[in-house]
Specification:
- The chain is of the alpha+beta class.
- The protein is about 15% helix and about 35% strand.
- The chain has a single domain, classed as Lipocalin, CATH 2.40.128.280.
- The chain has two helices and nine strands; from the N terminus they run ααβββββββββ.
- It has an eight-stranded antiparallel beta barrel with strand order 1-2-3-4-5-7-8-9.
- The two termini are about 30 Å apart.
Length: about 200
């Protein structure tokens, strides 16, 4: 049975207006759809964090729609974990303003893609993906990734990277256009991603 997430933003205030989950997702998506991680001003950060809090609160206990996970998701915003760290990376990607980070999901695999010099040069790290408890189909939903392959690519030319490890994360929200995950065996950061494919 999945255990509660370590989600650490402050509990949603009781006096907030109750809105539909779809409405909150739309508002958050509109704020982050053109953003890159950590490139926000203070006002934007506060607004995004408030919507993340509201969306997670609204979605908790709802049915996990596993069919929505498949596809490619771009990292748009990162709320640092309690350690102050952001994305957990087994291979350090340069934090250059033009670089993007993605995750590609299938029903049983995940691939992390990090641009090094824009899309021309990238690192790809992947492996198998499984639900912690397939019979538990509610939000938040826990996953385990077994990383067993890596490539450093320039265009279509790739060279293997020796890498392996285990990642655990909770799906805090999963919608048509946006997902929120939380790394559990790393920094504890909340990662907001937008669907790109």
């Amino acid at each position: 049975m999945s255990t509660p997430s370590t989600y650490a933003l402050q509990p949603t205030s009781n006096d907030k207006d109750i809105r539909s989950t779809k409405s909150i997702e739309r508002d958050l998506f509109n704020l982050v759809k053109n953003k890159k991680p950590n490139i926000t001003n203070k006002k934007e950060t506060e607004a995004i964090d408030e919507l993340i809090e509201e969306l997670i609160f609204s979605a908790t206990g709802s049915i996990w729609q596993r069919n929505l996970l498949n596809g490619s998701w771009r990292v748009a915003y990162v709320h640092s974990g309690q350690s102050g760290r952001g994305l957990d990376r087994r291979i350090p990607f340069p934090e250059l303003p033009f670089n993007e980070s993605y995750q590609r999901f299938t029903s049983d695999s995940v691939t992390n893609v990090g641009e090094l010099l824009g899309p021309a040069v990238r690192a790809e790290v992947g492996g198998s993906l499984q639900e912690d408890d397939y019979n538990f189909n509610f939000t938040p939903k826990r996953f385990i990734a077994y990383i067993n392959s890596g490539d450093l690519c320039a265009g279509q030319l790739c060279t293997k990277l020796p890498i392996e490890g285990k990642g655990i994360f909770d799906g805090m929200y999963l919608g048509e256009t946006l997902r929120i995950g939380q790394n559990l065996n790393g920094s504890g950061a909340l990662v907001v991603q937008v669907r790109v494919q």
